[in-house]
Amino acid sequence: MAAKRSRRTASSRRRSSLKRKPFDMALIQRGARLRRSPFFDKTLEAGCKSYTVYNHTFLPSYYSDPVTEYWHLLKDVALWDVAVERNVEIRGPDGFEFMQLLTPRDMAKCRVGQGKYVLITDEDGGILNDPVLLRLEENRFWIALADSDILLWAKGVARHAGMDVRITEPDASPLQVQGPKSKALMADLFGDKVTSLAYYFFTPIDLDGIPLLVTRTGWTAEIGYELYLLDASRGPDLWDAVLKAGKRYNIRPTGPSDIRRIEAGILNYGADMTIENNPYEVDLDRLVDLDKSSDFVGKAALQRIKDEGPKWKLVGIEIDGKPIEFNVTKWVVTAGGRAVGRVTSAIHSPRLKANIGYAMLPITHADLGMELTVQHPDGPRTATVVKKPFIDPGKEIPKS
To answer: In angstroms, rounded to a whole number, what is the distance separating the alpha carbons of residues 281 and 313?
Structure first.
């Protein structure tokens, strides 16, 4: 018994020591190839404990326990450095026509000052990226990217199309402010000009001379905003200003919450969808306007897939047993002892008290109620196909 207490004490000391030490970037940094956001030094000061690399840039993963950060997001307001959402700017006389070519979504339905969630597809209908698009002018657009190099793809498409467009990366670094108290914080910082924004609309504004573009968007399905910093040199100033104003609302920096985004049915490019998947497989066919007047990359392939019906489907699943950790590999799914698919994302939801996630399955195994087996690292688990999203399917929370 004394030996067990001694081991527990030693373990506690190690955990305490880890909490006190700043994160050592030398553990993952190798030269100057990887980018640091305008807020990077501030995330270190705030005690970020883990980073991943996204669009060649360091993304803070968490500062505290991910479950603690999840509850903070649901109750208060969280600050995320998401400058990894590197933007591509498309502008020029043919800007609108080129954007129509680049995405299956009809840009005629997107007003200046409005944003849209869009897809970028290849000639086979495969998904290359799922950015948030902002229409700044009639012929000027920004697309805030998921983790893939669309700047080079867009340049190639433009050259092949022979259109008069300029494609660059603007000085734009998003900082997300998310959670139920975020609207009150925005009111304190900016007033009605920001709080009156409708869902997925945006406005240019400045904060004590810091140039910004503020959008009514986020990756949480909670009430939230993204503050696009338009001068990278002012990153520390913006960070400090938001934290100071947010103190009364119990603001704190956190990492992106995989628990909350899975509950909401939000997909993570590279995990839940890749170039091998088309919009019909991942229930994003609402982003495909096959009847728009102009052509777009992948139109013929997507028309064929729609006519034939998808052969695979990304489904919601519940996994039995004790709470699971967030998956770091795509677990095999079996039926009748035979591998049939993969779990793409899975995690334990504290408020649902269930293990939830997504699995890519053949359409023959995708019916609601279908029972399958997940080859979890700790041993096989029974899983059931269920409806997704798991919470707030009408997105009433972020629209409120």
So the answer is: 5
